[in-house]
Specification:
Layout: H1 13-19, H2 43-74, H3 77-82, H4 87-111, E1 119-123, H5 130-154, H6 158-184, E2 189-191, E3 197-199, H7 217-223, H8 225-228, H9 230-236, E4 238-243
Helix pairs in contact: 2-4, 2-5, 2-7, 4-6, 5-6
């Protein structure tokens, strides 16, 4: 059993472009989260506000993609038949679906930004082949964690940094649970954002959450095109489509204000 102790894991550009799944472009609007802005007309303040907007816009698309992904899994025979004997796994997945919708609701309501991308593209075998589905899910959760870590580093206010940290912790849980489910599908490895096949034992194999060397949210936007852009999806071989449909989250999980 190997536990990764490096603070960063490398990822090659080509692999990143074909595996990542996190953000999209075209979401615009003013950031109104508590503590953001402040009315300063300085260049530094304007740059901070613009970066905050870019990160939140990316997060909104990430959460839209996440809800779509979990919904697709829940609606598939992988869930209804493949995990019929693993009701705990089914509970993990339905809770994750709710949590991603809660994140999305909080981000859109607090920021005033809108959902711009609702159709997503996945690798062939998504929602039918356990290995493809779990690899994709782990890749997405790796990317979500890395993006929220950027928020922790780069958001201009304490409130935004705290929100990013809170969501990042939940995404990390989702990644580990996906690797637990991989074992229940009798998979021996999962391949995430690093592009390397990693043993499913132990499922919680990171001592530190990696950033995958992301330093700017624009890198994540570029990397995510195979999941939301038709041309990039075709080039990456992503052929399965799924549309975002809002779900009603379990209100017992909504602990955002405590």
């Amino acid at each position: 059993m190997a536990i990764e102790t490096s603070l960063d894991l490398p990822v090659d550009r080509r692999g990143f472009l074909t595996r990542a799944g996190l953000v999209g472009a075209g979401v615009v609007g003013g950031v109104m989260l508590a503590g953001c802005g402040g009315g300063s007309s300085s260049n530094a303040s304007a740059q901070s506000s613009a970066n905050d907007t870019a990160i939140i816009s990316a997060a909104i698309i990430a959460e839209t993609l996440a809800v779509t992904t979990y919904t697709g899994i829940i609606n598939s025979t992988l869930f209804t038949t493949g995990l019929a004997a693993h009701t705990d796994d089914q509970a993990y997945l339905t809770a994750a679906q709710s949590e991603e919708q809660i994140h999305l609701n909080a981000l859109t309501a607090a920021s005033g930004l809108s959902i711009g991308t609702t159709l997503f593209y996945y690798p062939t075998g998504m929602f039918s082949d356990p290995q493809v589905t779990i690899n994709t899910l782990v890749t997405l959760e790796d990317a979500f964690v890395a993006a929220y870590l950027l928020g922790v580093q780069q958001f201009s206010t304490a409130n935004l940094r705290l929100l990013a940290a809170r969501i990042m912790g939940n995404e990390s849980e989702h990644r580990t649970l996906a690797r637990v489910i991989a074992g229940d599908f009798n998979l021996s490895t999962t391949t995430g954002l690093s592009g390397s096949a990693i043993s499913v034992s132990p499922p919680n194999n990171y001592a530190y959450e990696p950033t995958f060397n992301l330093s700017a949210i624009s890198q994540a936007v570029t990397a995510l095109k195979p999941f939301f852009d038709a041309t990039a999806a075709a080039a990456a071989g992503n052929t399965v489509t799924a549309s975002y449909v809002a779900v009603t989250p379990n209100s017992a999980l909504n602990d955002i204000n405590s």
